[in-house]
Amino acid sequence: MCDPAVKHMPPTLNLANAAINSAADLVTINASGQLINRPSTGNRTFGAAKVIGSGFGTAKEVFTTDWDRDGAYDLLTQWANGNLTLHRGIATGGFQAPVTLGSGGWETLTLAVGGWCANNRLPQVVALDTAGNLYLYPNVGLADMSLRTLMASGVAARKLSMVDYDADGFQDLLAIRSDGGVQLYRGAGTPAPRVEARLTVDTGWTDVTGIRPLRDVTALNSTGVALRRANDVVQYWDLSAGRLASPSNITGSWAGQRLAQ
Fold it and tell me: What's CA 123's distance to the chain center, in Å?
């Protein structure tokens, strides 16, 4: 699962005209199903909102990731009808026609997307089912995503986010529980999370409706998460010191919009 035969490194592309310019961009879905990007302009500031897609009104979650590691950012979308699709990004603008990676059953899962496996340069999908089982789905390109391995059981979360929380170079999982607590599942670059007591790293997140990992927002190689709160506030929480720093609000009009991850 975590040791592919081929490692993929993306080329350096000029993404000035791409729909998504960087891992620091904020992407949202509005009430009309339009996909909107706010490009990062540095130091927790973002440029004017621009529509980069439409037809996402029935999406359960939209994830921005470089799925094929070609240098352009793609859209991995979990739909309410149970399908999982990929829109490959085009460096000169827009997205290719969607490819179905999974047909049926995905609507019941809680997902996170990112580089969980240390030796695999392609992102993978971590999925939590309603029974509390956490699975790792390897990246199989444009093929059907049915292969998976059990990572952990007894996990309780209404939302997941994959980010390097403790700045050790490995991706971790933030699991937002229904009581608003945020539980940390630290990764070690292998399928299973570290065997250790699960820390609750924050509380009071009952009103969080969306969470998005961001890179390079405050400085090059900085890490953090954006939170969409129920009161139409979007916050940035920096993680560069290996812990959640005090949040700051991101300027903008967020009514009727939800965060892509």
Answer: 10
Q: Which amino acid is it at 102?
A: G
Instruction: Measure CA 70 to chain center.
Output: 18
DSSP code of 10? P
Distance between start and end Cα atoms, the chain: 23
Q: What is the pLDDT of residues 69-103, one digit of tens each?
A: 999 999 999 999 999 999 999 999 999 999 999 99
Q: Which of 50, 16, 25, 38 is nearest to 217 (CA)?
A: 25
Report the alpha-carbon distance of residue 254 to residue 235 in Å, rounded: 11
Instruction: Read off the pLDDT band of 5 (50, 70, 90).
Output: low
Secondary structure of 21-58 in the HEC alphabet?
Answer: CCCCCEEEECCCCCEEEECEEECCEECCCEEEECCCCC
Share of the chain above pLDDT 90, in %: 90
- CA–CA gap between residue 53 and residue 27 (Å, rounded): 11
The whole-angstrom distance between residue 17's C-alpha and the CA centroid of its chain comes to 22
Pick the closest to residue 34 from 64, 56, 7 (CA basis). Answer: 56
In tens, the pLDDT along 230-245 reads 999 999 999 989 999 9
CA 10 vs CA 65, 68, 71, 134: distances in Å: 12, 8, 5, 29
pTM score, whole prediction: 0.95
